[in-house]
Amino acid sequence: MSSLRFQALQNLQGEEKKITGYGEKKITALFGSNVFNGRAMREHLSDEAYKSLMNSAKSGTRVERKVADQVAAGMKLWAESRGVTHFTHWFQPLTGTTAEKHDSFFTLKSDGTAIELFDGDALIQQEPDASSFPNGGIRATFEARGYTAWDPSSPAFIMEAGSGKTLCIPTIFIAYNGESLDYKAPLLKSIAALDKAAVDVCHFFDKNVSKVTATLGWEQEYFVVDENLANARPDLMMCGRTLLGHSPAKGQQLEDHYFGSIPERVYAFMQDFEQESYKLGIPLRTRHNEVAPSQFECAPIFEEVNIAVDHNTLLMDVMNKVAKRHKLKALLHEKPFAGVNGSGKHNNWSMATDTGVNLLSPGKTPRTNLMFLTFFVNTIKAVHDYDDLLRGSIASANNDHRLGANEAPPAIISVYIGKYLSDVLDEVESRVKNKFSEQDEAILKLDIHKQIPELMMDNTDRNRTSPFAFTGNKFEFRAVGSSANCASPMLVLNTIMAHTLKQFKADVDVLIEKGEKKEIAVLQVLRDYITSSKKIRFEGDNYSDEWAEEAKRRGLSNFKTTPEALDAYVTEHAKHLFLGNNIFSDRELEARHEIMLEEYVKKVQIEGRILGYLATNHVLPAAINYQNTLIANVKGLKDLGMGEDSYSAQLNLVRAISTHINAINDNVEAMLANRKKANNIDHMRPRALAYCHDVKPYFETIRYHADKLELIVDDKLWQLPKYRELLYMR
User: Fold this and answer.
1) How many Å from the N-terminal Cα to the C-terminal Cα in the chain?
2) pTM of the complete model
3) Contact at 8 Å (CB) between 284 and 300?
4) Cα distance between residue 611 and residue 235, in whole Å
5) DSSP 416
6) pLDDT digits (tens, 9 = 90+) for 162-195
């Protein structure tokens, strides 16, 4: 009874509940208090510096050195007034987490005088070591130089940790020769590409549009478990998911957790991380229980996509830190527990003009309806043309456990738009067989706006099985994993949309040059796009076997594993897209492909090591211990002269345990042998495939036999916290 499991259970009984609340403070009083936002800038910057910085943030132009010095001085004054002593360039390398190197404002002058200093140079650029971050061969160890460069479009913020406070400056991270080594740099490029292409297309309908902004509203799913119980599970500590564990008698089959009453201890945690998030300007709006036991969700108000990505990345860090205060552990892995739903991060994406129009929202006039249809159809066309790349953008070792598991969208990318809009597109497609005429302008009078109640009703009960669904005024990319950086799928979505819009404008211009009326030219091209992208649209059950067969007949891709899905980044199709829109160079694409494959290999490798350790150091000793007890019992009954009927049950248990012990031992040895073979493969792609197809399959076999032993072995001997404890004891 001295194992970590039982210590954790004892501690849980006496766990003090941490009381958290907003007190008399309104959210509006907390919101943005730790952000160098417009209000703080107005107070600490000159008019010249403020206007220049705002213009730079909006237009993406470089901040002049003189202005940077003024901004740095004002930022330092604001930060010091709030007790800040250090600053850092906060960036998002390709590790999947954030990175920061803290420097103090403190320095010494040549005469030894101590001063506080933070100038424009320190604000604009720093030089962290780039060799220790994933670079896919772009940088050698002896070529360690890399640069972080300030992103003025994302405001600086103060991160509190214990009694310390650090000024964090969002930055991009690039190699010495300018190649991107992070998520933010290509995301910013994709935002600029989409802005330019979308504005050009908007001018068909409204010449007043001068900027189009991609927007994002993410929905973050996560699990919360007791910290001590989690720490008694080496797999949860090292891998973020349970590699072993039999499903409890009660899982999620009663559907009683979804939207249920939030447990008190979790509620206190939620309030705490919400307050920290509000200080950082993260506009959280929603919280609720999710489907699986101990699973929850939070979601913010929509924001510009770059800031939304920063805020989601920040939130995950905040949740992990705040959970420790409550002696809880937040699990952001896509599949922490077998047998219950995993976690996703639905990315709700749209586009908004500087004239206040949501381009994916039906309008009130024929002209705005046509503009809506244009961006709506172009989105579907973009997904159709680059479905493999969208699949690759959400590929990871973690997400492989979730996609297609009858709880999340499958690996097949398809688009759901609902019956009403399907009818609209069918009408556009079939209106004229050959070309539109002046008489066919009646189609422009499709009164979509008056049908919004029907449209919204059609989409309220929306298809939860679809990976990419239209939900009224936005598209919801539901296949994104809960631990993912949103920048990965968003930069792909922005880029494919920019590319499609550029082609759309070119196609329309050709018809206009031939003398076609503008509206008719737009409809002609839309009809062609609707026809050519029709196979990507699907309104049925994406979980069904019938859909997989139908998708195959349609010629849609179905990459079930990460190594296969990641190949989409290095096809000629993808290179033409990314190079043509100035998002990645050929070398950067090859490097990212290598990095993502290497991450996959390392994650599966770590899981294999932990699984072998758990099997040989936890499961087998407990099973052998219990087996010895049974054998002693059988011997005792024999010595008493009892017949075999009196101990047949014990003998059957001994035989069953032996079967499972031998199976675990044999499969662990085979897994280790195949892991060694995989490690000897030089190139990353075949090594990743070897881990996927030759190593990973042993995981489920070992788990099966270990979970059978969990049901047999005396509970007092089982060292690992069980699912019923992890999921239900708070």
Assistant:
1) 20
2) 0.93
3) yes
4) 7
5) E
6) 889 999 999 999 988 889 999 999 999 999 999 9
